[in-house]
Design a protein that fits this description.
Layout (H helix, E strand, L loop, with lengths): L11 E4 H4 L17 H9 L5 E5 H4 L6 H17 L6 E3 L18 H20 L4 E5 L4 E2 L7 H22 L4 E5 L8 E2 L4 H8 L8 E3 L3 H6 L4 H10 L6 E3 L18 H13 L6 E3 L9 H27 L1 H11 L3 H6 L5 H9 L4 H5 L5 H13 L3
Parallel strand pairs: 1-2, 1-10, 2-3, 3-4, 4-6, 6-8, 9-10
Antiparallel strand pairs: 5-7
Helix pairs in contact: 2-4, 5-6, 9-10, 10-11, 11-16, 12-16
Length: 388
């Protein structure tokens, strides 16, 4: 694919908040006019995008009347149909309004928690109306700066109560949503509960309907704290819980930058794309990122094209890597081993245990086995740089 042009079959999606972002940050006001939902449908429909995802208030202004809701929904549906787009995922904004300043599901005030529940139910209704099959929960305000203000055990219990509630609501309404939980260690709170994908996987096992709930890992969120996002996604794949994924760019240890996918750390992005492709992931490749604050509207569209182009280039590089004769030779050497022993290490039996206890090993010989990881990593570098 010389031009790296996206196809609908690639299942690339964008959130309304991406091109809708006007470039405001905590230190500066807007620098451009963000795209409206209808404009996004019109522009991204031309680029091979599969779908648009939304928070409730990306589409429907907070506090808008029923009449306004109906008009906006009708206009958006028409724009989707006219441009061959769909809505695969929806979510709720439980972080912007001051009512959620100390959390939504974990607030100490039962009125705030009840309002959050109400807001989510209405948002789930709108998402289902637009055909969404995944519902994401990101607890951006579910945390603390003052640990004395909340009991952390109670906070996790309240999170569990909320997710159990929405599983039952989805079942009762016949929506058949898959719920996807999105982790982040900090920002906008000093500390956010359930901060990593691994923590979310452990939490899911405690729910009433764990089969309905998976994860929505985000590249920037794991990378902020210096974790390896590829490893986090691999754990979710292994658990059968990768329901959705957010792709963007991020430098380690910085604020949440939401850069273009591929802008930072080509190698981790390479292994991530290779994992998604080789694991048979059938979900959306969702870009949760923003154009640079320096971008005008034309450059914002270049940002959208760039997210998809980066993925397609890395997909081609992964295919090149897997087919490379030198890579295959090195991997064969590294992975060479005793097939009989592999059988003994796969599942327990008394016979296997006794055979292993009676086997004689030569640790010095094992330690001397060559592991040409330098050659392998340099070959990857050559392939990524286009000199192989």
């Amino acid at each position: 694919m010389a031009a790296y042009e996206p196809q609908k079959s690639d299942k690339f999606t964008f959130g309304l908040w991406t091109l809708g972002n006007p470039g405001r940050d905590p230190f500066g006001d807007v620098v451009r006019t963000g795209f409206t939902p209808v404009e996004m449908a019109q522009e991204l429909g031309k680029l091979g995008v599969y779908g648009l995802n939304f928070h409730d208030n990306d589409l429907l202004p907070f506090g808008a009347s029923v009449g306004e809701h109906d008009r906006i929904m009708a206009e958006f549906k028409k724009a989707l149909d006219d441009n061959g787009l769909r809505v695969p995922m929806a979510t709720t904004n439980l972080f912007f309004h001051p009512v959620f300043k100390d959390g939504a599901f974990t607030s100490n005030d039962p009125q705030v928690r009840a309002f959050a529940y109400q807001k989510v139910m209405y948002s789930m209704d709108r998402g289902a109306e637009l055909g969404a099959e995944i519902y994401v929960f990101w607890g951006g305000r579910e945390g603390a700066e003052v640990d004395a203000s909340k009991d952390a055990v109670t906070a996790v219990k309240r999170m569990r109560d909320a997710i159990n509630f929405f599983c039952e609501y989805s079942r009762e309404q016949g929506y058949n949503y898959k719920l996807a939980l999105e982790a982040k260690p900090n920002e906008p709170r000093g500390d956010i509960y359930l901060p990593t994908t691994g923590a979310m996987l452990g939490f899911i096992a405690t729910l009433d309907h764990p089969e309905m709930v998976g994860v929505n890992p985000e590249y920037a969120h794991e990378t902020i704290s210096g974790l390896n996002f590829y490893h986090a996604v691999a754990q979710a794949v292994d658990a059968g819980k990768l329901f959705h994924i957010d792709l963007n760019g991020q430098k380690v240890g910085r604020f949440d930058q939401d850069l273009r996918f591929g802008q930072e750390d080509y190698k981790t992005n390479f292994f991530l794309v290779r994992l998604l492709e080789n694991s048979g992931f059938q979900g959306m490749k969702h870009f949760d990122a923003h154009p640079l604050r320096t971008s005008d509207r034309d450059d914002a569209l270049a940002f959208a094209r760039g997210c998809m182009r980066s993925y397609l280039i890395l997909r081609e590089k992964a295919q090149r890597f897997d087919a490379d004769p030198e890579v295959r030779e090195i991997l064969a050497q590294i992975h060479a081993g005793d097939a009989e022993l592999e059988e003994h290490l796969s599942g327990y039996s008394q016979n296997k245990a006794q055979a292993l206890k009676g086997r004689r090993f030569d640790p010095d010989a094992l330690a001397s086995k060559p592991l040409p990881y330098e050659r392998l990593d340099q070959r990857l570098f050559d392939i990524l740089m286009g000199v192989a």
